[in-house]
Model the fold of this input.
Amino acid sequence: MFKRAVLIRKALRGGGSPVAGQSDPGPSGLPLLGNLPEFARDPLAFFSRLRDEHGDWVPWSLGPKPCLLISRPADVNELLAGIETSFSQAELGWAVHHLLGDGVVTSTGEDWRRKRSLVQAGVRPRQVRSYAKTMVDCADDVAATWRDGQCVEVHREMTRLTQRIAVRTLFGVETAGREEAIARAMAVAQQELGAELRGVTAFFPPWILTPGRRRLRTAVVGLDAEIHRIIAEHRAATAAGEEREDLLSRLLDARDVDGTPLSDREVRDEAVTLYVGSHETSATTLTWTWHLLSGSPQARTRLDAELAEVLEGRLPTFDDYARLPFTQALIKESLRLYPPFWALGAVAREGATISGRHVPASTTVWASQWSIHRDSRLFPEPDAFRPQRWDSGAPNPVPEHAWFPFGGGPRTCLGTRFALVELALTLATLAQRWRLDTGPGEVRPVAGLNLQPSRPISATVRSA
Ligand code: HEM
Done:
């Protein structure tokens, strides 16, 4: 989420001229500003308009910075596959580095490759299986706090749930008493990070300490103290022969090819990266899913039937994940309509090409999940919530690479499996007991750090 926000910020201040020599010259823009005003006003509508009016390969400019929007799934696949070779990730700013340190998201080149393979060990399918019970227990705890007729703010409830899952799967149940302290420090840090990315302070050099940066520093000091204490406890427990299943233990066990373990600082950076990367995306997805379900009695009936048949009133286990295809379809359709990451971008290196076409160096190439997921050539009735489009054997199967909420290529989301299992099992657990009636009234998606609802979504809790 951070890379994209930083990319937007950097794009707004970059330099250069629009990509030249392509068939469609792209939209006209203002002198100096280019297409910046329209993009800044509503990037979702802007990307859809570019695609509809100018095609699948559209040069445009953000201020004086050259950009290119690509909308053919095959081209997007080529772009994502070329990151770290023909294309570069955008540079990240002070606030992101201060919170995440040198974790897998913030590193590049050889350093990134090494960290990615070390972190990967903790999110392999076998590991995700071991986290499934924690995911379900956390959802069951939340379900136990709701009452028939109660009014809840859906995103707040889903954040409570996914934060709890992140802390427990990362740091282990033994630290459950400290959940609140970690979640509080993280919440302050993320709030300040978001404010920095959206505001002018992002342009300030690192030595200018704004009040927001001071608050971020204080939150990170508190957070680090807690995490280093937990790391020390884990090391002591492992030395005493105790076996632990949490992600932190996997990071502590991870070894380079030459047998070198991660240092405490490196373990801390990856743990914070995983925490930040994992819970907000999942909370937002669950929020949109409840809203979509509330507006579709047909889908709700099918979900109830699947849960009753497969679970027969008991809590789901990891093995049930594969037996809940409609629950999975709901999540996929929700991620199609409301992808938390609404666009990805990368900067062309010298000699970069896509589908054999030259992309001038320094051009920022954008691919928008938002506009591609709602392209009528790829998804019939693209704005309709139709989870049945994911049924096996459905007419018009989803074309390859047209659905990419988790990105793709070498930097694809490391938590894809974790997220899909978490989303399906927590939805199944909560929906078995409750339905959330979000009532009438339009909720628009707004392109922020994630694709957020335009207003808080309140819901009345009803017994299922
Ligand atoms: C609905 C949930 C999620 C969505 C939609 C999502 C989406 C993404 C996307 C699009 C990227 C690529 C970002 C870029 O190139 O700028 C990414 C990267 C990443 N995600 Fe996720 N993610 C989700 C959940 C998770 C979870 C649960 C975890 C961890 C358990 C996680 C860990 C990561 C990490 C570590 C990276 C960086 C990979 C790298 O740079 O090599 N994500 N995610």
About this structure: The pocket of protoporphyrin IX containing FE is lined by residues 3-4, 104-105, 116, 123, 273-274, 277-278, 281-282, 285, 340-341, 344, 405-407, 411, 413-415, 418-419 (CB under 6 Å).
